[in-house]
Amino acid sequence: MEKNWVSWFEIPVTDFDRARAFYEIIFEIELHALDLGALKMGIFPGAQGGAICQGEAYHPGAFGPVIYLRAEPDLQLVLDRIPLAGGKILQQKKQISDAMGFMALFNDSEGNRLALHSMR
User: Fold this and answer.
1) pLDDT value at residue 73
2) Which residues in 70-107 are b (16+ Cβ under 10 Å) and which e?
3) What residues does 91 pair with on adjacent strands?
């Protein structure tokens, strides 16, 4: 049985509005904002996903877990928007293998190190 191993993710942010704009620009989506007082969340659309989170327990950084975000049909389309949205490309698109597709690494507007994945 094929399984999506990511059931939920939370990307820490310090500037909620800047981070929300960053992800909305690079993926051309709208994050649903949820203000819970001590915690602000920007929820990615879709049944399985995650959110950007601003709160006392959330600290962006370059050395935490690496989350690979799906960027179909071609991650290059998303990668090209990263510098324009305030992020930094750390590793250009490269092929993992014929069977596993392509990946790239980037820092978001908050300094988090993340990755993109697509099959072409």
Assistant:
1) 95
2) ebeebbeebbeebeebbbeeeeebeeeeeeeebbbbbb
3) 105
pTM for this entry: 0.92
Q: Which residues contact 49 (CB under 8 A, 6 or more apart)?
A: 8, 9, 43
Length of the chain: 120
* Helices then strands, each counted (H, E), the chain: 2, 8
Q: Are strands 101-107 and 88-97 parallel, antiparallel or unpaired?
A: antiparallel
Rounded CA separation 64/48 (Å): 21
111-75-118 Cα angle (round to 5): 110
Q: What is the DSSP letter of 85?
A: G
pLDDT of residue 86 exceeding 80: yes
Instruction: Classify the phi-psi angles of 46: left when phi > 0, otherwise alpha if psi is within -120 to 50, otherwise beta.
Output: left
**36-76 pLDDT, tens per residue?**
999 999 999 987 789 999 999 999 999 988 999 999 999 99
The token duo for 58 is 């959330």
